[in-house]
Specification:
By secondary structure, the chain is an all-alpha fold. It is built from three helices and no strands.
Length: 86
């Protein structure tokens, strides 16, 4: 693992069996989305995380990164708007 990579621990505390199975099944996709986010591609990461989002049983790490992506995109948009006036 290089310095820019961060390990993503599995968190199963309190998860129902179906949630645990979903986490195991989607682990690779989640890790790719986290990597994209930390590489500066918030839009691509959000698209991948949206595909992992389950409305009736949200996964806290997925929701955490969806929020971070949305915030990064808002900040990018605000910065672009501020720079447009210069």
């Amino acid at each position: 693992m290089n310095r820019s990579q961060r390990p993503v621990p599995e968190v199963f505390d309190g998860d129902a069996p179906a949630g645990r199975a979903r986490k195991r099944r989607t682990r690779t996709e989640f890790e790719k989305a986290v990597y994209r986010f930390h590489s500066g591609d918030a839009r691509g990461a959000l698209e991948e995380l949206d595909a992992l989002h389950v409305e009736e049983d949200p996964d806290p790490p997925v929701e955490l990164y969806r929020g971070r992506c949305a915030r990064a995109l808002r900040l990018d948009s605000a910065a672009a708007g501020a720079n447009a006036g210069t």
